[in-house]
Design goal:
- This protein is mainly beta.
- It contains 2 helices and 9 strands.
- The strands form 2 sheets. Strands 1, 4, 5, 6, 8 and 9 form a 6-stranded antiparallel β-sheet that branches. Strands 2-3-7 form a 3-stranded antiparallel β-sheet, with no helix packed on it.
- A hairpin with a 6-residue loop joins strand 4 and strand 5.
- The relative contact order is 0.18.
Length: 148
Amino acid sequence: MLALAGCTQALAGGLRPLEDTEMSNVTGGDGISFAAHIVLNDPTLVGAVADSRLSLGFNGDGQNRYLVIKNLRGSIDMWAVSLGVQQRSDGGGDTITIGLPGYVRYGNFGFESLSVQTDPTAPVTGNLGSLNINGNVSLQGQVRLWSH
């Protein structure tokens, strides 16, 4: 076993400093990939909240208004979201690349009601609709970000 470890180090050539010109010719894999399982307001949990709200405030014409999303809930499973760095095709530097997830599954994901109110804690009297998503989505592609 020790002899095998010695052979591996000899093949790798050991560690040595690289000049910038040598470093620009080095290639390899980089970046990270991750999966996520997200559960929001699961009603099956002990002590689950039955009336949750997400409020977003806006000020227009001197009056505060709030977009109130009532009982946001559900689950999302995402697989293989990636984050990495790639060289731009025009040679103008690097880009941060976010790889879209290849698979997304929604389970009872949505909200009970959506309203616009002047008081975010008042009872929800208006309803602009509700949303409930069950299903799978397959995506491909990247989002690339760079600065000038």
